[in-house]
Amino acid sequence: MLQLLILVALARVTISWIIHMNKQGYYPYDSVETSSGKSFFFLNFFNLQKKFKGSSGKTKLLFTHWLNLIDENFEKEFWIDESNSSEFVNRKQIYKDTVNSTRVWTDFQLRPNFIIASVIG
Q1: Contact indicator for 107, 101 with CB cutoff of 8 Å
Q2: Residues contacting 96, CB < 8 A, separation 6+
Q3: Which is nearest to 59 in space by CA: 86, 30, 33, 85?
Q4: In angstroms, rounded to a whole number, what is the distance separating the alpha carbons of residues 50 and 116?
Q5: Cα–Cα distance for residue pair 4/11, rounded to 1 Å
Q6: Residue 54 — φ and ψ, nearest 5°?
Q7: In which region does residue 20 sit, left (phi positive, over 0), alpha (psi from -120 to 50) or beta (all else)?
Q8: Helix orientation angle between 4-24 and 63-78, rounded to the nearest 10 degrees
Q9: Contacts of 79 (CB under 8 A, 6+ apart)
Q10: Sign of the Cα pseudo-torsion (17, 23, 29, 33, in order)
Q11: How far apart are CA 100 and CA 47, in angstroms?
Q12: What is the pTM of this model?
């Protein structure tokens, strides 16, 4: 099972560092671009692939936009609030560490992985 919460937290820290290095002049790139025209997995996940498709057919994403996407969607995707009425919810007001698992009930388990993500993110 993919521990998506930890991967997203690691991606956020890394992207933030890359942005900082770019602003300081240590890293020359401010974006990533696909060479094949295919979209990035997480853009498909959030149904945002069309938003970043350029006229050349390639998908280009600024690191600052990527960081904003994580910040704007993190709570929405990982936090289980009091109003969640899914039949699979066992606990509320926790962070889940998977999203869209093949076994839906596993998305709503309380596991300690969110602590790692909270510390690094």
Answers
A1: yes
A2: 5, 78, 79, 80, 107, 108, 109, 114
A3: 33
A4: 33
A5: 10
A6: -85, 175
A7: alpha
A8: 160
A9: 93, 94, 95, 96
A10: positive
A11: 14
A12: 0.71
CB 11 within 8 A of CB 73: no
Phi/psi for 12 (5° steps) reads: -60, -45
Q: Residues 95, 117: contact at Cβ < 8 Å?
A: yes
pLDDT tens-digit readout, 37-80: 555 655 555 555 555 556 566 777 889 988 998 898 888 888 88
The closest alpha carbon to 3, from 79, 96, 72, belongs to 96
DSSP for 34-95?
-SSSPPPHHHHHTT-GGGGB-TTS-BEEEHHHHHHHHHHHHHHHHEE-TT---TT-S-SSEE
Q: Determine the Cα–Cα distance for residues 67 and 72; give it in Å rounded to an integer.
A: 9
